Amino acid sequence: GWCPLSLAGVQTTQLLVEPPWRPAVLWDQVTLTCQGLRTTGVTTWYKDGQRWWQEGCDHLTITKSGMYMCDRPGTGLSAPVRILDGWLVLQVPEQMLLEGDTVTLHCRG
């Protein structure tokens, strides 16, 4: 049967990117989701190393390029995610790849 996503095993704050391509590009209307150990509490957002936004919402739609991080009570600061605004970008899927895997690349402009 279908089971809801459990965050019980999450020990660090995760910053999820949609759509799931790296590097993320501004013109994809990127949404960041901040996930931590607790489902309640204020999410603090950082852009380019500075505190940028603080609210209860754990979703953020990106309108400016830069380096983003988020902070959740209990699990702390996420790893950084860079959002580019380049005119040509080669993207790879977000999931981890191993040697021998077949991979689809996006060349976007």
Can you put this structure into words, describing what you see?
It comes from Rhodinocichla rosea. GO terms for molecular function: transmembrane signaling receptor activity. One of its GO terms (biological process) is cell surface receptor signaling pathway. InterPro entries: Ig-like_dom_sf (IPR036179), Ig-like_fold (IPR013783), Ig_Fc_receptor (IPR050488). The protein has a single domain (about 15-109), classed as Immunoglobulin-like (Sandwich), CATH 2.60.40.10. The protein is built from no helices and 12 strands. The protein has strands spanning about 15-20, 20, 25, 30-35, 45, 50-55, 60, 65-70, 75, 80-85, 90-95, 105-109. Strands 3, 5, 6, 8, 9 and 10 form a 6-stranded mixed sheet that branches. It has a 3-stranded antiparallel sheet with strand order 1-4-7, with no helix packed on it.
H/E topology pattern: EEEEEEEEEEEE
| Number of discrete domains | 1
Shape: globular
The end-to-end distance, rounded to whole angstroms, is 41 Å
Name the CATH superfamily assignment: Immunoglobulins
- Name of the CATH class: Mainly Beta
At the third CATH level, what is the topology name?
Answer: Immunoglobulin-like
Number of strands: 12
Main sheet summary:
6 strands, mixed
Low-confidence stretches: none
Overall pLDDT level: 85
Tally of DSSP helical segments: 0
